[in-house]
């Protein structure tokens, strides 16, 4: 960095005193020359503890990572100042003693022994490079150095040098160099690494370890010898360090590829809520899943902490070399299949229409022009709401959505953050097919809803930064479900049938049960599994990026095992976070008016006696033939007491006297209709 001394020595026409006088004179131009601009630095996304996830180059593909001097090994900082600028903390940009020593040694030795440029002068040159190293350029460099000292602290000047120092090729700054040559942060450096990081900026291209390893090792050895003479390291350590092989160029960190790309738009160093350990484990698990599923298969997943809704891990695809690998599939709308069914039942619980023990008919049923079938095309007859949800029966879900209202369900999703792509009828109403996945929704939006389910029904947006998480903790959010409905759903979903080889809804680690739901879209295009346990919600999607079908691949088979594996990883990484946090609310098994689900169901149609009618009886005990239209055999009851049948099998009702009576007819599916009549007699 001191080639200008040789130029001056050859010319022997510029005395050192004159140079210093000119520097002082030019310092008066401080206000005439604007300070050099600080350059753009690479965006760097780190995890929640500051560990690098992914770095992004700046213009011309250069790597220039932001550097905090306090995060650089103190031994490196001490060696840098000792070798490059011993009076860095005391001079004002230009060190006359160092320059005098440099000229004296040049004259006496006939060659450059030491340079006269301070770290501040080097920083000025890095901020404002000049193509030719002339005396005039050196004078401007001195002025710039004085200018920098007036405007910035020593800490900031050192930070600029550590960020801009050239390290060969497209590497700038000690942090980029440490990642490229050693594969780690410069917070802890060995003596051989320290020596190389000081030697390289002096001749970055001539000493590049990947192109000229012998020159790199020789310059490193000379630096180690100087460090030994300065008392920075022992002779033994210097000798051992000099024997280390020249390093090779390494790749920069590239974890959380898609999430980091989204976060990097803010520029600079961005600390995220991601956890590099969970992120690495999730990327590995999904890559294995996709490899086992086939060359065209992709997978994506999210891990969300309920506390502040922090996203702890996010995988947009299971490998960029696979088809669709460059697409963030957690942000692409897909059909959810049956994943959203729990929230349909949750709204019914909240409205008082049903409870987990409410019985409902799983039988063929047409809803206007919509005729849903179960996935296996079989029907179970009379089941409880809990059983219908745990076994993902379709007809009961459509039946309950018909009662809750499709538009109300969509409104709840939209307020919770789900921007569903929904087909609507000509009247502007959403269709009942949304109960079975007839809409588009993203994995991120599903994560919002399942996180709400585990947090007592309160929905909040996903947080990707600590600042966003802090804002969530201060926000009331949107109440997707009331606390009792949410707790009831969690209890029901925890009892769902476990995947093969697992205890019912339990983790291998023995942690609390998982409340989960799977989904398979029409034509086997999308396989889903979403669940919540303790303080975490997880969503997994498996399919093809182009939406092509994968016959026979269901959410239970393709995605659910990975969901359980991911919760196992969470339990090992954060045992306290996976501890149960479900509200201690006990849901009723539905008795009385909730014993049978009847809202929105077309039951039997009473022909005689019509509701509100008056009938005349000539005498007590006279019989009336009851008539109704309905499916299968019909049974009549008066206040819960069966009405007797006559010899022909006809229900014959015999009122005992005048007054008001209530009759109920029930079909084979348990659907009923009531009529209230008044019986009158001549004397009444």
Automatic annotation (TrEMBL):
InterPro entries: Beta-lactam/transpept-like (IPR012338), Glyco_trans_51 (IPR001264), Glycosyltr_51/Transpeptidase (IPR050396), Lysozyme-like_dom_sf (IPR023346), PBP_1c (IPR011815), PBP_C (IPR009647), PBP_transglycosylase (IPR036950), PCN-bd_Tpept (IPR001460)
Gene3D superfamilies: Biosynthetic peptidoglycan transglycosylase-like, DD-peptidase/beta-lactamase superfamily
UniProt keywords, alphabetically: Carboxypeptidase, Glycosyltransferase, Hydrolase, Multifunctional enzyme, Protease, Transferase
Glycosyl transferase family domain ranges (all copies): 59-227
Pfam families assigned to the protein according to its UniProt record, in alphabetical order: BiPBP_C, Transgly, Transpeptidase
Catalytic activity: [GlcNAc-(1->4)-Mur2Ac(oyl-L-Ala-gamma-D-Glu-L-Lys-D-Ala-D-Ala)](n)-di-trans,octa-cis-undecaprenyl diphosphate + beta-D-GlcNAc-(1->4)-Mur2Ac(oyl-L-Ala-gamma-D-Glu-L-Lys-D-Ala-D-Ala)-di-trans,octa-cis-undecaprenyl diphosphate = [GlcNAc-(1->4)-Mur2Ac(oyl-L-Ala-gamma-D-Glu-L-Lys-D-Ala-D-Ala)](n+1)-di-trans,octa-cis-undecaprenyl diphosphate + di-trans,octa-cis-undecaprenyl diphosphate + H(+)
Protein name: peptidoglycan glycosyltransferase
Gene: pbpC
């Amino acid at each position: 960095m001191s080639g200008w001394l040789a130029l001056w020595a050859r010319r022997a026409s510029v005395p050192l005193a004159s140079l210093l006088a000119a520097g002082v004179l030019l310092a008066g131009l401080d206000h005439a020359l604007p300070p050099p601009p600080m350059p753009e630095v690479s965006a760097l996304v780190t995890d929640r503890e500051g560990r690098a996830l992914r770095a992004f180059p700046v213009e011309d593909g250069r790597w220039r990572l932001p550097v905090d001097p306090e995060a650089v090994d103190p031994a490196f900082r001490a060696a840098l100042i000792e070798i490059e600028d011993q009076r860095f903390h005391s001079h004002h940009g230009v060190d006359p003693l160092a320059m005098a020593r440099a000229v004296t040694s040049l004259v006496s030795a006939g060659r450059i022994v030491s340079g006269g440029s301070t770290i501040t002068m080097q920083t000025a040159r890095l901020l404002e490079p000049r193509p030719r190293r002339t005396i005039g350029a050196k004078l401007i460099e001195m002025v710039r150095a004085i200018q920098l000292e007036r405007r910035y602290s020593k800490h900031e000047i050192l930070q600029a040098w550590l960020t801009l120092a050239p390290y060969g090729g497209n590497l700038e700054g000690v942090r980029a160099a440490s990642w490229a040559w050693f594969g780690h942060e410069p917070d802890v450096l060995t003596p051989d690494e320290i020596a190389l990081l000081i030697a390289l900026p002096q001749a970055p291209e001539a000493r590049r370890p990947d192109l000229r390893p012998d020159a790199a090792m020789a310059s490193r050895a000379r630096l180690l010898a100087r460090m030994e003479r300065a008392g920075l390291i022992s002779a033994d350590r210097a000798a051992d360090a000099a024997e280390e092989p020249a390093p090779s160029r390494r790749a920069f960190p590239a974890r959380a590829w898609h999430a980091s790309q989204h976060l990097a738009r803010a520029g600079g160093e961005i600390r995220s809520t991601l956890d590099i350990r969970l992120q690495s484990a999730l990327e590995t698990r999904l890559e294995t899943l996709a490899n086992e599923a086939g060359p065209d298969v992709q997978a994506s997943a999210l891990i969300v902490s309920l506390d502040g809704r922090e996203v702890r891990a996010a995988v947009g695809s299971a490998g960029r070399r696979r088809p669709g690998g460059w697409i963030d599939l957690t942000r692409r709308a897909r059909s959810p299949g049956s994943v959203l069914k729990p929230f349909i039942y949750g709204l019914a619980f909240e409205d008082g229409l049903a409870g987990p023990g409410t019985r409902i008919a799983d039988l063929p049923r047409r809803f206007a022009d919509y005729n849903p079938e179960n996935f296996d095309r079989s029907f179970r007859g009379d089941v409880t709401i809990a059983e219908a949800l745990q076994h993902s029966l379709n007809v009961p879900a459509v039946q309950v959505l018909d009662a809750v209202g499709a538009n109300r369900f969509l409104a709840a999703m939209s307020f919770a953050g789900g921007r569903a792509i929904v087909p609507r009828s000509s009247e502007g109403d959403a269709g009942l097919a949304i109960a079975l996945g007839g809409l588009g929704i993203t994995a991120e939006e599903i994560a919002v809803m399942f996180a709400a389910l585990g947090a007592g029904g309160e929905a909040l947006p996903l947080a990707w930064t600590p600042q966003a998480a802090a804002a969530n903790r201060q926000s009331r959010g949107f109440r997707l479900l009331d606390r009792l409905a949410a707790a009831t759903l969690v209890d029901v979903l925890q009892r769902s049938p476990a995947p093969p080889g697992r205890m019912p809804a339990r983790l291998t680690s023995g942690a609390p049960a998982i409340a989960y739901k799977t989904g398979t879209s029409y034509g086997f295009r999308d396989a889903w599994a979403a669940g919540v346990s303790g303080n975490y919600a997880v969503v997994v999607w498996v399919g093809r990026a182009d939406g092509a079908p994968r016959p026979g691949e269901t959410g239970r088979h393709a995605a659910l095992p990975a969901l359980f594996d991911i919760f196992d990883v969470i339990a090992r990484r954060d045992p306290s976070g996976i501890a149960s946090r479900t509200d201690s609310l006990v849901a009723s098994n539905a008795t009385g008016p909730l014993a049978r689900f009847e809202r929105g169901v077309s039951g039997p149609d009473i022909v005689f006696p019509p509701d509100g009618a008056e009938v005349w009886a000539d005498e007590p005990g006279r019989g009336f033939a009851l008539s109704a239209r309905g499916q299968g055999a019909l049974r009549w009851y008066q206040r819960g007491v069966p009405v007797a049948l006559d010899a022909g099998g006809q229900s014959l009702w015999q009122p005992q006297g005048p007054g008001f009576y209530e009759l109920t007819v029930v079909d084979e599916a348990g659907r009923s209709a009531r009529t209230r009549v008044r019986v009158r007699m001549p004397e009444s």
